[in-house]
Amino acid sequence: MERTFLAVKPDGVQRGLVGEIVGRFEKKGFHLVALKMIHVRRSLGGSLRLASRELLQQHYIDLKDRPFYPGLVEYMHSGPVVAMVWQGANAVKTARKMLGETKPDDSNPGTIRGDFAVQVGRNIIHGSDSVASAEKEISLWFTAEEVTSWKSCSHDWVYE
Length: 160
What we know:
By secondary structure, the protein is of the alpha+beta class. Helices cover 38% and strands 16% of the residues. It is globular and about 45 Å long.
């Protein structure tokens, strides 16, 4: 089974779309093996685990030469992010189809971005674009101990 990394961006979290997104992947038959919310700012009551600018810069390193890179890192650092690892057959490719195009106006209805996003700079969710990227992103956001391994009782009803 393949694994992919997804992150609900601050706009998706603030709009209350985390449950809807998780539900879509569960209904598809994917298996959630890791999930955590990382608040990227210091709270008044202390410090939560922070998604540092360094982590975000490393996550988006392939975009570092693009003019929107600084704004993207700053935006991702502006609020809570829900990071997830999903497992399933062809998880990366299928998840990308479920997300829709990066530009929401190019996304079909029925996709996450097609249904919920309006502008590319607030496109709700990040998803790995290859198996190699998924492996890199999972290791950036999760320790090996944070990614579980278990078999759902419905596995044999979803997969041959």
